[in-house]
């Protein structure tokens, strides 16, 4: 069979990736079959196997895509700023912006449903690596705030950074069903609660109230 032109291969690959991303986000790894993805993409299974060796490889690609969106909206902006207060505000703003991204509007809860099986070890490892790197970004921002005398974490720095990762995972999943205004209000409440608990000066609290 002659090889498809490059533009047709690109269109086919994009259809597979997009449909797989949405299906895995809604139903998780175990809830989606190769046949489901091929049907959603309006392609044959053979066309899918032309680009991916199987479901595990495709899921790992989609998981990396999700991680990339979180880095784009949240962790890269946090890493770039030297202002720890702005860094924490970027975290909440980034969550809000991510929830408005059309790529995520169909849901991402399925990416937290990775079973523990031999074929999923690479996925579990990728998820653990991403969470560890994300926690390190948050911890670095909080540590900078402590060093600048803007946060008082009373030795809880590592635990708080870990708790923030859990908080982000907890709020991302259901908030996509809220309106943008509801999401904005909820992010504001979470930000102000955090700063009221750990800010060391009124200026920080005023910045948080502006969110």
SSE blueprint and pairings:
Blueprint: H1 6-27, H2 34-40, H3 45-51, H4 55-80, H5 84-100, H6 121-147, H7 157-175, H8 180-198, H9 202-209
Helix pairs in contact: 1-2, 1-4, 4-5, 4-6, 5-6, 5-8, 6-7, 8-9
Organism: Panacagrimonas perspica
DNA-binding region: 33-52
Protein name: TetR family transcriptional regulator
Protein model, in words:
This is TetR family transcriptional regulator. Pfam families: TetR_N. Keywords: DNA-binding, Transcription, Transcription regulation. Residues 10-70 form the HTH tetR-type domain. The protein is an all-alpha fold and 211 residues long. It has one domain: Orthogonal Bundle (Tetracycline Repressor, domain 2). Helices cover 72% and strands 0% of the residues. The protein is built from 9 helices and no strands. The protein has helices spanning 6-27, 34-40, 45-51, 55-80, 84-100, 121-147, 157-175, 180-198, 202-209. The radius of gyration is 20 Å and the shape is elongated. It starts with 5 loop residues before the first helix and ends with a helix. The mean pLDDT is 84.
């Amino acid at each position: 069979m002659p090889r498809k032109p490059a533009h047709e291969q690109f269109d086919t690959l994009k259809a597979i990736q997009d449909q797989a991303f949405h299906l895995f986000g809604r139903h998780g790894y175990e809830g989606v079959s190769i046949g489901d993805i091929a049907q959603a993409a309006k392609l044959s299974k053979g066309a899918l196997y032309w680009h991916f060796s199987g479901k595990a490889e495709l899921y790992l690609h989609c998981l990396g895509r999700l991680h990339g969106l979180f880095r784009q909206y949240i962790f890269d902006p946090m890493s770039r700023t030297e202002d720890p207060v702005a860094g924490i505000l970027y975290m909440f703003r980034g969550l809000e912006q991510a929830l408005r991204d059309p790529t995520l509007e169909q849901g991402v809860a399925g990416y937290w449903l990775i079973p523990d099986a031999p074929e999923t070890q690479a996925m579990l490892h990728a998820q653990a690596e991403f969470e560890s790197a994300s926690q390190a970004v948050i911890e670095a921002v909080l540590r900078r705030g402590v060093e600048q005398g803007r946060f008082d974490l009373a030795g809880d720095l590592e635990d708080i950074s870990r708790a923030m990762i859990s908080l982000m995972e907890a709020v991302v999943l259901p908030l996509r069903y809220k309106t943008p205004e509801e999401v904005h209000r909820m992010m504001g409440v979470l930000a102000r609660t955090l700063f009221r608990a750990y800010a060391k000066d009124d200026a920080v609290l005023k910045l948080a109230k502006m969110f």
